[in-house]
Amino acid sequence: MADRDTDLALDLPALARGGDVRGLRAALDPLDVPAVVDELERVDALTRAVAFRALPKGTALAVFEDLDPALQGELLQELREEAVRDIVAGLDPDDRAGLLDELPAGVTARLLSGLTADERRMTTDLLGYPPESAGRRMTPQVVALPAGLTVGSALAHVRRHGEDAETIYTLPVVGAGRHVEGVVSLRRLFVTDDDVPVADVLSDPVVVRADTDQEVAARVVRDHGLVAVPVVDAEDRLLGVFTVDDAMRVLEHEEDEDTARAGGSEPLRKPYLATSVLGLVRSRILWLLVLIAAATLTVSVLDAFEDTLDEVVALALFVPLLIGTAGNTGAQAATTVVRATAVGDVRFRDLPRVVGREAVTGLLLGTGLSLIGAVPASLVAGPEIALVLALALVVVCTLATTAGAFTPMVAKRVGLDPAVVSAPFITTFVDATGLVVYFLIARAVLGL
Amino acid sequence: MADRDTDLALDLPALARGGDVRGLRAALDPLDVPAVVDELERVDALTRAVAFRALPKGTALAVFEDLDPALQGELLQELREEAVRDIVAGLDPDDRAGLLDELPAGVTARLLSGLTADERRMTTDLLGYPPESAGRRMTPQVVALPAGLTVGSALAHVRRHGEDAETIYTLPVVGAGRHVEGVVSLRRLFVTDDDVPVADVLSDPVVVRADTDQEVAARVVRDHGLVAVPVVDAEDRLLGVFTVDDAMRVLEHEEDEDTARAGGSEPLRKPYLATSVLGLVRSRILWLLVLIAAATLTVSVLDAFEDTLDEVVALALFVPLLIGTAGNTGAQAATTVVRATAVGDVRFRDLPRVVGREAVTGLLLGTGLSLIGAVPASLVAGPEIALVLALALVVVCTLATTAGAFTPMVAKRVGLDPAVVSAPFITTFVDATGLVVYFLIARAVLGL
Fold first, then answer.
1. Given the DSSP bridges, would you call strands B180-185 and A228-232 parallel, antiparallel or unpaired?
2. Do B336 and A191 touch (CB under 8 A)?
3. Which terminus of chain A has fewer Cβ atoms in its 10 Å neighbourhood, N or C?
């Protein structure tokens, strides 16, 4: 696994261009499903379609299921109608709902019409929940135990009805109207004697509502160490289950988003190598424009202080260093606070505490840097400018960490993604503020 | 769950200071285990110890298991010897090994001596694997099926031996010398008739070696959608299993690390609010010093071009905007490539392709920004300086994306964490290079 990097590269595009189906099959055959997925996500759309068609039928469905949803949609459009119907019918209802989300409405309707009535109903039910909700991600194919069984009869029930369920390891116990009364794991049933009532080994149910955000549901699964969590409606009636593999995918997806935004770009909708260069440009240009517009503030600040700059050109020497350091300090604080907010370590009510801690941290960092830098700066630029720089660093670092803590928390409170207003945003903000501080201190100290 | 933010804050510190054990118990009693963990990770060490002692015994062990490992270590030092022994004996061997890692060697030895011979052997076995390996994280308590059973006898075997196992959902089938011959899920056995040989429903085993990095093992679990993966030695003999809940924790931990480093700081060893302000300063100061040392390059560059600057002070106005934009462009590229490398979308052999794509992306971004900014810049600073700025933007953006792609990939190749050399590092590097480019272009265009 870890050694894949040193394998010979497969030249799928060359094989696909040559129409060499046997060669493609031979190249992909030794790989397991995740490895095939990996290769397909690294090539262009046409190669992907040709290579996919060369896969044996059983493997093809498994590969399709694991493919990035955006690529699933693209791929379907390259396949023949018949192959598409087979794939769509073979998917689990939750995966199918995820796929149909990616397709134009006309295609969705045509594909739905090819399903059995039962399959169609399950799929459209899922599509009725809000995007990115637990309901959209759950599987309705769950084994529910009727209340009042013994362990022996419950195990027999699971064995009879388990074939189609996505998981049988988490078993909700339901009473009248599918009201969830508790949850028992298959494991618990398995190590308990047959004649014990299920009610005696029931756990309090940890459940999520269908309209819960998928990320929140995923964190419930992770924090409770669950294999699956039942999904219920507003009256606590069982609708389906949200499984740990879905939870892991959701968390990875959210992490993709947070990481991209922390770096000042929009998340890519597809794996990196499957994204075109224009796709990369599109994901970044808007943020760059916003940031460059904000950066014009720095031009105005420098313009306003041009007299000061004219008199002491040496002040200009330290501008990039000062604002760079301020930006880095702000980015550190923003990244830390965004992350702490994302994982739930910090909530809005902690705002004063967090801002206070970060302000003190910034003050200490600024003071530390000033003390360490004082001697070298004096040697380069003389004691007066070194003093200006030292004072400015203390103030600017404190401002930067405070802004870095405050902004993402407030953003989250008003419903924005805190990652959006993080590092690059803070950096640009402190650039302008830092310059004002620097020149004001310079005027005061140098008596300009 | 999602509404926790609006709950009234629990004032655990006040209750703890007042020694109000009954109040603490009443405050914590309505919360489930993850919520208690959450509260305990938000308070100081003393409050945590007092509140922990107020928990009922059964809850206490479950809470302890889920607590951040660094806090587990701290907490043990606040508890009485007897309570500590109970907790340590109650943990699963893998959790215990993780905890003992956090403690001073003397404490570890004393705690180990309090265990039964069997428990002690399992724990020290785990401690023998390298830190952050799958072996260190696995549980040795696994139900292995002897080869040659029928489904019925296999189910009976699991039922007899499943009590102590951490999971019974993934069942390795072992031949002579515990050599892993295949894996079968409990679910598969459960929906198959009793008289079918297990060999007929066996899957090819997906396994990881004990010395595999824990992050790689966690990605195997996620990519294959597994509940657990068997861990084997170099001869494919079964040692234990690595479960999905461990995989989720490992991935979150790695994400913490990557995020912190992307923001230019070291990862915190504890949850945010449980980290002291000095801890925050420590996690950041070293990186700031490295970056500020690198930023002195910008001072040298400006110093070298001081004549140019003296002649055309207007050039100084655009310095922060130019290097800010270059830094942002570089940060975007670095963040995207670090992430693509981390999730395995991109490998070292893709280096030329990735660098090529990013160079073109940078060229397009720089050109786009120049075209959009040309008119406003001419109005502010005249056509000549606007031309300098436009040309510099194109070159600098291309340099920034290229460096942003190249550096993390090469860092990973030589065994460094790619996240370390990401955004702030790239930003600082392009600051200096960008200034050189800017002044060289200025000299050429303005004929200085």
1. unpaired
2. no
3. C
- Residues 6 or more apart in contact with residue A95 via CB below 8 angstroms: A65
Q: What is the ipTM of this complex?
A: 0.80
What 8-state DSSP symbol labels residue B212?
A: S
Domain ranges of chain A: 4-137, 145-252, 276-446
Test B273 with A345 for CB contact under 8 angstroms.
yes
Nearest to B116, CA basis, from B144, B88, B83: B88
* Closest-CA residue of chain B to A321: B295
Q: How far apart are CA A17 and CA B117, in angstroms?
A: 64
pLDDT at B291: 86
Selected residues 191-220 of chain B with any CB under 8 Å from a CB in chain A: 191, 204, 206, 208, 212-213, 216, 220
Q: Out of 3.40.50.620, 3.40.50.410, 3.10.580.10, 2.60.40.10, select the CATH number for domain B145-252.
A: 3.10.580.10
Residue A133 has φ and ψ, to the nearest 5°, of -100, 165
| Distance in angstroms (rounded) separating the CA atoms of residues B61 and B56 | 9
Spatial distance between the Cα atoms of A325 and B263, rounded to a whole number of angstroms: 13
β partners of residue A172: A183
Closest C-alpha among B17, B254, B26 to residue B132? B254
Nearest residue on chain B to A245, judged by CA atoms? B225
Tokens at A410, concatenated:
């407030």
Return the beta strands (E) in A204-250 as ranges.
208-209, 228-232, 238-243
d(CA A152, CA A193): 7
| Contacting residues of A for B292, CB less than 8 Å apart | 321, 324-325, 369, 373
Which residues in A lie closer than 8 A to residue B183 (C-beta atoms)? none
Q: How far apart are CA B420 and CA A96, in angstroms?
A: 39
Chain A CB contacts of B260 under 8 Å are: 335-336, 339
Which residues in chain A are contacts of B424 at CB distance < 8 A? 328, 331
Q: Look at the block and give the residue holding tokens 């964190």.
A: A219
Contact in structure between B242 and B208 (CB atoms under 8 Å): yes
| Cα three-residue angle A127-A131-A132, rounded to 5 degrees | 125
Helix A423-446, helix A277-304: angle, nearest 10: 20
**For testing the chain B interface, which of A209, A315, A321, A385 should be mutated: the one with the most B CBs within 10 Å?**
A321
Nearest Cα residue in chain B from A66: B223
3-class DSSP assignment, residue B137: helix
pLDDT in tens, A277-310: 999 999 899 888 888 888 888 888 998 998 888 8
One-letter amino acid of B118: D
So what's the pLDDT on residue A259?
Answer: 83
Task: Give which of B219, B288, B389 to mutate to test A binding, by max A Cβ within 10 Å.
Answer: B288
CATH number attached to the domain at B276-446:
1.10.357.20
**Predicted TM-score (pTM) of this structure:** 0.80
CATH number of B4-137: 1.25.60.10
* Residue B271 contacts A, CB cutoff 8 Å: yes
Q: Which tens digit of pLDDT belongs to each residue from B358-371?
A: 999 999 999 999 99
Banded pLDDT at B438 (limits 50, 70, 90): very high
Contacts of A277 in chain B (CB under 8 A): 357, 360-361, 364
A250 vs A214: CA distance, rounded Å? 7
Contact A159 B190 (CB under 8 A): yes
* C-alpha distance across the termini of chain A, in Å: 65
pLDDT single digits (tens) A89-147: 888 877 888 777 777 777 777 777 777 888 888 877 888 888 889 998 898 889 999 99
Q: Cα–chain-centroid distance for residue B356?
A: 29
- In chain B, residues 43-72 whose CB comes closer than 8 Å to chain A: 66
Query: In B248-348, where do the E strands start and end?
Result: none
